């Protein structure tokens, strides 16, 4: 069942890693200091294998809002997810 994050792409503004899977991937890469994220095309090709390593199946389906995946964020993502309160010190 595909009721997770939309896949998205790097050009969607505003950057929304809690809504778009590719944005979440980019946020993860930045938070961990990895400077060369893969392209969206490569990301899409690599996801089935990456998910299989964790015993999961990667699924997606086309909707009127774009491609929706079966991937959801866990509480652990809060460790690397950017804060919603941008501009607050």
TrEMBL record:
Protein name stated in the entry: DNA primase
Ranges where the DNA primase/nucleoside triphosphatase C-terminal domain occurs: 11-80
Organism encoding this protein: Shigella sonnei
The organism's place on the tree of life at top rank: Bacteria
Stored Pfam families: Pox_D5
Gene3D superfamilies linked to this entry: Winged helix-like DNA-binding domain superfamily/Winged helix DNA-binding domain (1.10.10.10)
InterPro entries documented for this protein: DNA_primase/NTPase_C (IPR004968), WH-like_DNA-bd_sf (IPR036388), WH_DNA-bd_sf (IPR036390)
């Amino acid at each position: 069942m595909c009721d997770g994050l939309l896949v998205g792409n790097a050009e969607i503004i505003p950057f929304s890693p809690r809504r778009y899977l590719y944005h979440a991937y980019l946020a993860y890469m930045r938070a961990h200091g990895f400077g060369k994220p893969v392209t969206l095309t490569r990301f899409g090709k690599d996801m089935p294998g990456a998910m299989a390593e964790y015993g999961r199946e990667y699924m997606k389906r086309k909707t009127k809002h774009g491609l929706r995946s079966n991937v959801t964020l866990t509480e652990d993502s809060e460790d690397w997810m950017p804060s919603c309160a941008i501009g607050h010190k």
